[in-house]
Amino acid sequence: MHILEIPSFFPPYGGEFCLEQSKALQQLGHEVRILSRVQLGITKGWKDYLFLPYTMGVETMDGVEVWRDFQRGIPKVVRPNVDRWLKGVLNLSEEYFRQYGYPDVIHAHCVKWAGRAAMLIAQHHRIPYVITEHLPSMIYEEEFRRASLGQWEIPLLREALEKADRVVVVSEELVDELAPYFGKRYSHQVVSNMIDTRFFHYAKRQPSDTFRFCAIGNFIPRKGYDILAGAFRRLKSQGVNASLTLVGPDTDSASCRRLYANIPDVRFVGTTDKVGVRDILYSADALVLPTRSESQGLVLLEAMSTGIPVITTDVVPQSVRQHDGCVTVPTEDAVSLSHAMVRLISEHFSSEHISSAISESYSPHIIGNQLQQLFFSLLERQVKQ
């Protein structure tokens, strides 16, 4: 099967889930390539804006062929930027088809805006397309609360979802979360994001007299670092022998350090790579993430895959919460979070059982097979028509 992947986001701005799914499908014997157009923002990183290539290039990333194109965004000019992005993706697709022919299926990652591009390409060439939606409702809420944008964006995105041959959501709860914007008039199926269970594999921890918590995620309001600060401050005031390591973009910033000022045993790591994240997990006894909104929470699954329990909030999908290693508390509740952290220190979890359960549900082979079966079913339906 020939699969063309189109991500809404790609490095240097995220989108690793597209590459991981492409690798899994390729390992199952399929012909898979990625067509990536990234809009660069000068405020996000002026060096990337100035020095990344100005012409389309083809490279191999982890064994997957990637067509990479960069668009220089015009600050505060949203709709023309979107129109340019869509036109650029359509032009890239035509060049791709001339070289490789038409794919059997187009797989877009996130409706905004790869899903819209996939719809336009599919309409012109009569190719089935699937949209996988990864983004939590809070991300859309932050943008659509600006009515001038939402008034023109939402109908375009809703149409792309409704015309898709299938919409893949990473959790069942995400359909209801996004319904205020996109409705539910589309055919959907739940397929989780995958994690690299071979990389985030089980490892026995070295014993420590201090219970070692870690938190991994961007230092942004959605992740609830302020709630964690209140909970850990309360925990330390009770004399609990515990430490906390903060990992992720801006967790070593001045604003993060101010938030945790005068709280002992807190370490600020900041941005690190995949190996660094795993090293942190292997030196921790538990992960804590008091998130306010989460479509799935891959870092929770990665932590459990290495064999440690996690504490998070009840906004995390039931598919994650059902695992024995996942403890949940209400959102916005630092007191409940501190109580859960204290309880976790004295509870016993089977680390190997936690790790094994995650591998059986979220490994690349498992998720790749689910996507493969979905794509095959769409092609069979097309033949019958």
UniProtKB/TrEMBL annotation:
Name the residues that span the membrane: none
Which residues belong to any copy of the Glycosyltransferase subfamily 4-like N-terminal domain? 17-198
Recorded protein name is Glycosyltransferase
